[in-house]
Design a protein that fits this description.
This protein is of the alpha+beta class and 158 residues long. Strands 2-1-5-3-4 form a 5-stranded mixed sheet, with helices on both faces. Helix 2 crosses helix 5. The longest helix is centred in the C-terminal third of the chain and has 15 residues. Bound molecules: FE2/S2 (inorganic) cluster (2 copies).
Length: 158
């Protein structure tokens, strides 16, 4: 079967790749573009480890095909820090020890960033609701929620 030639934008950079019709965007990101920060947990849309944004919408990259990335604007965890400077969410996750094994962490960070872009001053309930699609087997969630709320406070300049 012939491959599809896809042009798109990833973390602000123009990107092109070849993929089969059935290749997920998660596979393309990890296996073809070398962006292995996006993790594969379940491959069925249940864990959120593969979270990215596509045209500013939070999506599970395991549920999207590579061919659907054509002419989109994709953001992954690799685009979150500015060079050596961590995003406030990344810093707060470290400060609050909001990770253990780290497999879920990129997905939580991408999802939390998406939340704070929509809702800069979320309640704890909003944070927990927004992040309900992201599963963590290690932390018990409280530290993650504290880190997101703390980052929101800092980003508001409060
Ligand atoms: S790997 Fe995509 S939601 Fe779990
Ligand atoms: S830190 Fe291990 S799954 Fe979340």
């Amino acid at each position: 079967m012939s491959k599809h030639h896809i042009t798109t934008t990833v973390n602000g950079d123009p990107v092109e790749f070849l993929c089969e019709s059935q290749d997920t965007l998660l596979d393309v990101l990890r296996d073809q573009l070398g962006l292995t920060g996006t993790k594969e947990g379940c491959s069925t849309g249940d864990c959120g480890a593969c979270s990215i944004t596509v045209d500013d919408r939070l999506v599970c990259s395991c549920l999207m095909l590579g061919v659907e990335a054509k002419d989109k604007s994709i953001s992954t965890i690799e685009g979150m820090a500015r060079g050596e400077e961590l995003h406030p969410l990344q810093r707060k996750f470290l400060e609050h020890a909001a990770l253990q094994c780290g497999i879920c962490t990129p997905g939580f960070l991408v999802a939390a960033k998406s939340l704070l872009e929509r809702s800069p001053d979320p309640t704890e309930t909003e944070v927990r609701y927004w992040l309900a699609g992201n599963l963590c087997r290690c932390t018990g969630y409280d530290k993650i929620v504290r880190a997101v709320l703390d980052a929101a406070t800092e980003m508001r300049g409060a």
